[in-house]
Structures are given as structure tokens and as C-alpha cells.
Amino acid sequence: MSPRPGEVWPADLGLAAKTRPVVIVSRYDPDAPRALTIYVPLTTQNRGSKYEVALPSLRFPREASVANVQGIASLPLARFERKLGELPREAFDQIRQAIAFAVEMA
């Protein structure tokens, strides 16, 4: 199973030997030249910046979380464990807008 945009997956980010939830932001491309997926990490530390998007209350993750677009990165597909769920379209659109702001595309 390949991660798709807007889905939340736990991923091994190589931090303190534990996985972290991330939102998939790369397009679904079954013919991509590299087996990499672009993600934005989720965190419970809300600093109230324009680089964060507060997520609505979800059953995953259990705590109030924000998407930290300054942490955007990519990982090999093998580092993603399983799909936890999918964000509402509005929340995913806000993440896309925050990424555009962060990289001077908006």
C-alpha cells in the first residue's frame, strides 16, 4: 500500500528510536523515479506560527496536534508503517497553503 496525499501515517524518522505521525503531501505517482514520499510531521507543540496548521479533533492522533510545515522532508516508502487515517479536505488544503507560504510560492 502506498501513502497518498492527505493521509496520516506513522513513520520512522530516525528520532529516538520511535515513530512519529506524519501527513503525506507528495502526489500519488505509481511511476515515480525514486521510492520516496514527501511528508509534513505532526507535533503537539503548537507555537502559533504561520508555519503550523492546527488539525481538527481526530481519533488519530489522540492529542491536539499541528502540522509543522517547516519540517517537510522525504523518506523511503519502507519507513512508513501503516495508514492511520485521512485528514479532512479543508485541513489538508490549509497544509498545502502553509507549504506554499513557507517556500515563497504564495
Write up this protein.
It is a single chain. Helices cover 13% and strands 34% of the residues. The protein is mainly beta. The termini are far apart. The chain has one helix spanning 89-102, and strands at 7-15, 18-24, 36-43, 52-54, 66-68, 73-76, 85-86. Strands 1, 2, 3, 4, 5, 6 and 7 form a seven-stranded antiparallel β-sheet that branches. The chain has one domain: SH3 type barrels (Roll), CATH 2.30.30.
Number of helical segments with 4 or more residues: 1
Helix content estimate: 10-25%
Q: Main sheet, how many strands, which sense, barrel?
A: 7 strands, antiparallel
> Which residues sit in consecutive blocks of at least 5 with pLDDT less than 50?
none
Reading off the top of the CATH hierarchy, the class is best stated as Mainly Beta
Average pLDDT works out at 91
How does the helix and strand content classify structurally?
A: mainly beta
Give the quaternary arrangement of the chains.
Answer: single chain
User: What is the count of structural domains?
Assistant: 1
* Ends distance: 32 Å
CATH third-tier fold name? SH3 type barrels
Assign an overall shape.
globular
Order of helix and strand elements from N to C terminus: EEEEEEEH
Write the CATH architecture name. Roll
Backbone CA Rg:
13 Å
Please report which band the strand proportion falls in: under 5%, 5-15%, 15-25%, 25-35%, 35-45% or over 45%. Answer: 25-35%
Report the strand count: 7
